[in-house]
């Protein structure tokens, strides 16, 4: 089997860069046993005593022992008696595999270590993830066989409520080999998802921003190694941009912004241009010297949007519509404002944060939406538009072949095992290369996976309104099927 396709979850970087192992082996079993004994007692006071002895001071400051007692007792009451099937230790966390008397299937809890006191627990979090596909991902030699394999995989996801949205796998000649839509765009309004429903594509917009930068390079307006300060000399804290180039920003090697980003914290109010967000970004000190390492950065792509605005004299969204949406024929794509998105786009669905064992159904995402997405992500699109976008990219209507080749060559590894070029994720499965980008994350109700094989012309658009891990699993398996097919 090939290694799994690695898609982006910013939170995984925070865990990987956090504390050492919390505990493992017999210690993990003992600690988990203490937690389960307390939860199975159904007594909030007993659970609070467990929390007092096991949670770190920082963890108890963010949630008191009594509050932990109430939360965990409620979770146990809804789930029924818990039993431990096993545990897996990771850097910074131990994941418990549980069975619950009133729930079907395996449930998971993450016990996260305190970075300053790794022997103590800082947080206990739900783990919402899809059921691993048990069916074969066998090689296919015809479109008929490939379509059947794709439909079997999709049916498996639907049977476990692991996907909502639109999926489209497009053949090299532009034919939609498989296109299927399921789920609700808005459960309260009873709006069913359709193939034309705009879906938030999250960070997948970063590839669009990179293409606009590539076009400016082709026009001679800038170079990949142009110093950023030569384009934005009036940046609020110019010393933060010293040594930063366009290439650094594109490849997540500039050191600007926190790894998890923070765009939602400073894009709530209406703004007219992406450059309006620069003062908030400038307040964040650089995390490292440019070019010395890689860390995924939303803020870097916001700055690239400001570069596009400075060089064109127009708002980012207008440039995107003229230079990418229009030549690609993407008539259903836009950066919707919050009111527009609420009225006609797909709403996001996720499990409530206090539903630790996923005993209840998904709820609509209440996380604050930005006023409008921008050059780091948050636009809306459809599966059909994404197929047209990939066709235009392969045909040279968006970038010259040499520029695209330069931008899709490996340039950084912002997450372990996850390779990026300049604006594109790069995945290799059994010697076949797929490029594209994904969007979304955990607990936000956005999950999109976009991939194409430049050599063969096959493409994938997984446009979901559940969390990224659900789209990730489906995209991984579909990419494997495409890598193994010999169908033309």
Automatic annotation (TrEMBL):
Pfam families: Beta-lactamase (PF00144). SUPFAM superfamilies: beta-lactamase/transpeptidase-like. Keywords: Hydrolase, Signal. The keyword Transport does not apply. InterPro entries: AmpC-like, Beta-lactam-related, Beta-lactam/transpept-like, TAT_signal. Residues 171-467 form the Beta-lactamase-related domain. GO terms for molecular function: hydrolase activity. The keyword Ion transport does not apply. It comes from the Bacteria. Residues 1-28 form the signal peptide. This is Serine hydrolase.
């Amino acid at each position: 089997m090939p290694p799994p396709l690695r898609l982006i979850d910013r939170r995984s970087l925070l865990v990987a860069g956090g504390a050492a192992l919390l505990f493992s082996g017999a210690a993990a079993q003992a600690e988990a046993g203490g937690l389960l004994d307390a939860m199975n007692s159904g007594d909030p006071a007993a659970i609070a005593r467990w929390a007092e002895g096991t949670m770190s001071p920082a963890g108890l400051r963010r949630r008191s022992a009594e509050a932990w007692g109430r939360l965990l007792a409620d979770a146990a009451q809804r789930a029924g008696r818990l039993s431990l099937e096993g545990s897996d230790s990771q850097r910074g966390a131990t994941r418990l595999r549980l069975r619950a008397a009133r729930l079907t299937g395996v449930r998971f809890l993450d016990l996260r270590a305190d970075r300053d006191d790794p022997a103590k627990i800082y947080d206990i979090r739900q783990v919402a993830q899809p059921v691993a596909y048990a069916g074969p991902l066998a090689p296919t030699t015809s479109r008929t066989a490939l379509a059947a394999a794709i439909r079997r995989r999709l049916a498996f996801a639907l049977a476990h409520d692991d996907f909502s949205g639109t999926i489209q796998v497009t053949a090299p000649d532009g034919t939609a080999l498989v296109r299927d839509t399921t789920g609700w765009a808005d459960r309260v309004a009873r709006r069913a998802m359709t193939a034309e429903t705009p879906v938030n594509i999250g960070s997948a917009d970063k590839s669009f921003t990179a293409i606009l930068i590539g076009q400016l390079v082709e026009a001679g307006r800038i170079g990949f190694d142009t110093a950023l300060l030569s384009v934005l000399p009036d940046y609020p804290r110019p010393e933060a941009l010293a040594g930063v180039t366009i290439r650094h920003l594109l490849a997540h090697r500039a050191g600007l912004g926190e790894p998890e980003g923070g765009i939602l914290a400073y894009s709530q109010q209406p703004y007219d241009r992406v450059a309006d967000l620069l003062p908030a970004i400038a307040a964040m000190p650089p995390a490292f010297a440019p070019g010395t390492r890689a860390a995924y950065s939303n803020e870097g792509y916001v700055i690239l949007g400001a570069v596009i605005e400075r060089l064109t004299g127009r708002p980012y969204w207008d440039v995107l519509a003229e230079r990418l949406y229009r030549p690609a024929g993407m008539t259903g794509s836009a950066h919707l404002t919050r009111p527009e998105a609420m009225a006609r786009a797909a709403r996001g669905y996720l499990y409530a944060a206090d539903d630790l064992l996923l005993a209840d159904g998904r709820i609509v995402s209440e996380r604050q939406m930005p006023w409008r997405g921008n050059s780091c992500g948050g636009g809306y699109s459809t599966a059909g538009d994404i197929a047209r976008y990939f066709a235009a990219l392969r045909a040279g209507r968006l970038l010259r072949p040499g520029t695209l080749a330069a931008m899709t060559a490996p340039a950084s590894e912002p997450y372990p095992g996850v390779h990026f070029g300049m604006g594109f994720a790069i995945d290799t499965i059994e010697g076949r290369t797929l490029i594209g980008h994904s969007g979304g994350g955990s607990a936000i109700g956005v999950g999109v996976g976009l991939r194409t094989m430049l050599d063969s012309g096959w493409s994938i658009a997984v446009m979901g309104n559940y969390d990224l891990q659900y789209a990730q699993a489906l995209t991984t398996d579909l990419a494997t099927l495409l890598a193994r097919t010999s169908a033309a």
